[in-house]
Design brief:
about 140 residues, mainly alpha, 434 Repressor (Amino-terminal Domain), 2 domains, globular
């Protein structure tokens, strides 16, 4: 995974928002405190397993990876259907473009979380529709 610019600061901000120490978030993520420190200083890239674990603890992956905070505004059922359909379509396109054409279930779940938030922002007019595919295609998942 190429570390997105500002990833470390956003990770640290999310950890502090959850009122966790580096050691506590490291334990949740299944890594040591040194690894957590390296993620926050952008010296090392986290694994999919780590991202999945901290997401379950309340870390906002869309903010962490893309620097975007989704608005909590509710979508209509039609908008929600469009978001979900487009998210699954983009995951398939991304998966097909990967070496071997496969993504793990864990990677697909993480991508869905990020895409759902990104596409929700598009539906709500918070980011331009033409920017979303560029942001998504630049996303590099850890293996």
């Amino acid at each position: 995974m190429a570390i997105p610019k500002g990833f470390g600061e956003r990770l640290k901000a999310e950890r502090k928002k959850l009122k966790l120490s580096q050691t506590e978030l490291a334990e949740i993520g299944g890594v040591g405190r040194l690894a957590q420190s390296q993620y926050e200083s952008e010296q090392s890239a986290p694994t999919t397993r780590y991202l999945s674990a901290i997401s379950s603890a309340g870390v906002n992956l869309t903010y962490l990876v893309l620097g975007l905070r989704p608005d909590n505004t509710e979508l209509t059922p039609e908008q929600s259907d469009r978001v979900e359909s487009k998210a699954f379509e983009w995951i398939e396109i991304y998966s097909d473009a990967q070496s071997g054409g496969k993504l793990s279930a864990e990677s697909r779940r993480l991508m869905y979380q990020v895409l759902r938030n990104l596409l929700t922002q598009v539906e709500l007019g918070e980011i331009p529709a033409d920017l979303a595919p560029k942001m998504f295609m630049s996303l590099k998942l850890p293996t």
